[in-house]
Each structure stands twice: as structure tokens, then as C-alpha cells.
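Me: Here is a favour to ask of a fellow structure person. Could you put it straight underneath, so I can go through it closely?

Assistant:
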Amino acid sequence: MKEKKHPAYQDILFEDTSNGHKFVCGSTLQPKESAEFEGKTYPVYKVPISSASHPFFTGSKQFIDTEGRVDRFSKKYAMKKEQTLKEKKDQVEKTQVKKKTRKTKKK
């Protein structure tokens, strides 16, 4: 391999932010934080979900979202749904007004 072309491969401490599970794995990531684990100091990379907390690997049926992504998604699309319902209601009202004006013109 050429020198300085590839990032350094090193052991990194991965920390699951949802349940606090920690494990060491080799990677080319270059995190700035470091922490001590089992007597050694490692660079730390925080992951939102790992095999220790993912429902597929744990067998649980509930997903625990510590970062609020599910809530933000639900709120975003709830607002969008409200907007579309309001637009449809306004459109119906406009068509009703048009029908009324047509009837009055014919008389």
C-alpha cells in the first residue's frame, strides 16, 4: 500500500447511546473523543443503534428511540396531513361557492 493514502486502522470503542453498551472493534474512523475501557484508552464513536439494542437482534418488538427521530417524523407528517386536509376543505368550499354563484346567475 502507498504511504499516507489510506487512513490508519485502529481499535475503536463503539458506544450504543440507546442502552450504553460498549464494544471494541477495528476501524479507520478518526473520532476526536477518547475513553477508557477495560484498562485501555480508546477513541470513542457513539452509535445510535447497535446489535445490542436493535429489535431484530434482541428479539423485542418495541423500538426505543432515544434521539426523538420517530417523534419528529410523526409530527412532520401529522402537520402535512393537516395541511392537505385543510387544502381539500378550502377546495370544496370554493367549488360550493362557484356552484352557488352559477345558480344565482341562471335565475
The radius of gyration is 28 Å.
